[in-house]
Amino acid sequence: MLKIYNTLTQQKEVFKSIHPNHINMYVCGPTVYGDIHLGNARPIIFFDVLKRYLTHIGYTVNYVSNITDVDDKIIDKAKELKMSELELTQIYTDHYFDMSKKVGSQLPNLMPKATEYVSDMIHYIDELIQNGDAYAKDSGVYFRVRNVSDYGILSKQNIDELNEGVRITLDQDKEDPRDFSVWKNTTDGLSFDSPWGKGRPGWHTECAVMNHIIFKEEIDIHGGGSDLKFPHHENEMAQTVAHSNHHLARYWMHVGRLDVNQEKMSKSLGNMTFVKDLVKSVDPLAFRLLMVSHHYRQPINYSDDLMQQFVKEYDKIERSLKKVFLTMKLNGVSRGKPLDDILIQFNKLMEDDFNTPNVMTIIQDLIKQLNKEKDELIKTNIYETLSVILHILGVMPEFHISDDALNTYRKWEQARLDKDYQKADELRKMLLDEGLI
Ligand SMILES: [Zn+2]
What we know:
The chain is of the alpha/beta class. It folds into three domains: 3-255, HUPs (Rossmann fold, 3-Layer(aba) Sandwich); 275-393, no CATH class; 403-433. Helices cover 47% and strands 14% of the residues. It has helices at 38-56, 72-80, 85-102, 118-130, 203-215, 229-244, 275-281, 284-292, 304-330, 340-351, 356-372, 376-393, 403-417, 421-433, and strands spanning 3-6, 11-14, 22-27, 60-65, 134-137, 140-143, 180-185, 199-201, 219-225, 249-255, 258-260, 263-264, 300-302. The strands form four sheets. It has a four-stranded parallel beta sheet, with helices on one face. A four-stranded antiparallel beta sheet has the order 5-6-7-8. α2 (72-80) crosses α3 and α4 crosses α5 (203-215). The chain is elongated. 39% of the residues are buried. The protein binds zinc ion.
């Protein structure tokens, strides 16, 4: 029985999909104006693992993640780089795709761009105004927070306490300081015609509208980084409740943050590490292994030392598997039979809100067994079991062993049997170069 921690109720709940065997999932995607750093990679990896696991247990998952391609930060960066916003967002959208694939994640089923939904957003905002849930002023359109009786339910904030600790623009156009912008009137940068003047939609409205248009109903899972709970997710949810009279999602899942040497990763501290730089010296799957070795809700305290530990860990897994893979190839065995009892243990852990840290213990135990085992059949079965688990976590190494390399290996074995040590030595060097022994 799958249990998921739901931020909305702050407890692990038995998961029940709205439609049988089908899951609709939306994860807030990137604002495309800069390189992907290690913290950004965490939800990219976790929600991919989530989709793989849900698919493994029999669901069809429709995973949607948006691209925010209109934003103040995009306008500023485009000015700084003297290029159009369109050019800038195209560069960083491609970069996002590249880095997602680099860290072993498949792209979501759909990645809608906010700019492609602007007419829907205008229509939606118009409906909010008609219903009295939003109001137009000279500076733009604002959402009337007080109309939503349980506002604050997701982020557990008391509406009357929101004055403090929250960045509230003292905007004279707002009826209430907690109201948020759903449309901003501006002609600075990319802007669109609307009944309220030239401008662009608010970020919280973009996600609410894309959900509304794409799914047309309450979805199963809405996810993102834990920093998005408030105000972004709270405001997405408030608009959906007001506009469509249903909740946005049944389960809200939030991924913990990634700190560097106990500090929050930030530009001002100069401790930003980008995925594109890390993968120059580190196998991206070793980085992914580090990520999945931590529980998705817990913060990760990243450091170079920690990364090096996982480089070694991953290398160990890769080398052990490669030896078995080679033997399987030599013996013409294509598959083994996974060990059912281990897969049952694995499922139990994953069903318990995705306890991947304990799954790591299973993996390490299997690697130890594999290295000790002499029986080729048992080794093949352990390999198969690991292959199932590592594929779901997205950290299964890919092995390519050419027929030439296999022949070299066979010749090496024969040379040793024939006690032709000189030849065996030459062949051994070749195999070492190929990383086969
Ligand atoms: Zn969003």
